[in-house]
Amino acid sequence: MAITKKTKVTDDKHVAPKDNVYKNMQESKETHISNHLDEIVAAVSVTPRKKIQNKLPQTALFQPPREKLHLCEEKAKSYSSSHKHKEAVHELVRCIALTRICYGDSHWKLAEAHINLAQGYLQLKGLSLQAKQHAEKAKEILTNSLMPPYNDNTDVFKCSIELFHTMGRALLSLQKFKEASENLSKAERLAKELLQCGRIIKEEWIEIQARIKLSSAQMYQSQKKSKEALPHYQEALEYIEISRGEKSLECVSILRELAGVEQSLGFYDASINHFLQAHLIVLSKNPSQEEAAVSAHFVAHASIASGRPEHHDVAEQYFQESMANLKDAEGMGKAKFLSIQDDYCHFLQVIGQKEKATSILRESLEAKVAVFGDLSPKVAETYRLLGGTDLAQGNHSGAHKKLKKCLQIQTLLYGPQDKRTLATQQTMDVLAKAPEVAVKPRQTPRAKAAFCGSAAQHGAPGKARPSAAD
């Protein structure tokens, strides 16, 4: 190509002006095509250009855009189902570029691509505004796509349902509840009209309803309107059970949200039953030990919330099941085990088994230092609870010693003016007046400095090993 261009430049001296105009038009056209191909390559390339030469045959660069679009769509679905939302968003961005190449700037397919990207952004916290912007772009495209006669615009109407629903969810995330409600209502009305006109079948309508009802329920619950949220959650569950089956994993999150609303309304039996129903579904799907533990913990926690003695056995059963799944876990699993164990100790204290709770807390202290570090909220809270137990038993000296350690950690973590630090300081001030505590010399500033230096050295997990007697 470079040789050809050089020859053309040489020949230009001998051609007529008319031919010059023609040749300039041809060269301009060639340059435009070349630039356009560069844009396509940039949009459809899977890896940076330097790496492509080594990893892909040259023909892969010029794979037809529609094939590349289909591949990106499939990869986006796969990433999304695996909860790899960042990777999914990356593929959805490429889908927009490829859809524009394949269908142009005014096709409803481009609006659909923007809606899909908006939905991808909604899976990532803090990106609701980007989702709203892409939904607005989709609305602009769809407005131009809808032309009379409307008989052949079923795909555009279906896309409009997704648009209104996605816009509603984006506005909900931005806490614009009135606008969110309006968009969700539009989606529901349009779906009903399409069903009545025979544009969609009942199975499609049920799936759409399940998603809209769930979003409506979440909208009311975000406003602390549990009574209004309850029937929408119930309908969403009913529709998802019809479309996906009563044992589908899609039911689990809805059951848990429904149970949370029932719990806030005081419907404790229904709440426990729905958490238990979700737990049984999870167990039927070969879960990991951590997934099974978390699911059992939901049931145990719901049983405590009722405050009723008849639910204590249920709480005990599912606490034990939850902890058994994570007893030998390491890393994040161990951290989860210790958190659940703390909830269990709180439960034991509520039902009057304080000695058992204290024993478990003492034994857990060394593990907490190993997992969370000695300067951690978990360790501070354990010292606080152990100090409170000693105080209740009249062991003022032991309570003062543990609360002193708690206060030192809280001061370093939260500062001296934090309400948690101040509450511990007030208890310490009361204890300081007790005879067995008052006779002991107070810690000097030099000793305090020594503690802070030691704490800084032993802040890493696993370096400090406190005695259970502490």
Verbal overview:
With 470 residues, this protein is mostly helical. Helix content is 77%, strand content 0%. The chain is built from 22 helices and no strands. It has helices at 2-11, 17-44, 49-55, 65-81, 85-103, 108-122, 128-145, 154-173, 177-196, 202-222, 226-244, 250-264, 268-283, 289-306, 312-326, 332-350, 354-372, 377-392, 396-414, 419-431, 435-438, 445-457. α7 (128-145) runs antiparallel to α8, α9 (177-196) runs antiparallel to α10 (202-222) and α11 runs antiparallel to α12. The longest helix has 28 residues, at 17-44. The radius of gyration is 32 Å and the shape is elongated. The N and C termini lie far apart (82 Å).
Helix and strand arrangement:
Elements: H1 2-11, H2 17-44, H3 49-55, H4 65-81, H5 85-103, H6 108-122, H7 128-145, H8 154-173, H9 177-196, H10 202-222, H11 226-244, H12 250-264, H13 268-283, H14 289-306, H15 312-326, H16 332-350, H17 354-372, H18 377-392, H19 396-414, H20 419-431, H21 435-438, H22 445-457
Report the count of strand segments.
0
Helix count, DSSP H or I runs of 4 or more residues: 22
Strand content: under 5%
Could you say which structural class the secondary elements and strand pairing correspond to? mainly alpha
Distance between the termini: 82 Å
The stretches of 5 or more residues where confidence is low (pLDDT under 50) are: 1-23, 25-57, 444-452, 454-465
As a percent range, the share of helical residues equals over 70%
Q: What general outline do the C-alpha atoms trace? A: elongated
| Nearest-integer average pLDDT | 83
Instruction: Note the main sheet.
Output: none
Computed Rg? 32 Å
- The string of secondary-structure elements, in order, is HHHHHHHHHHHHHHHHHHHHHH
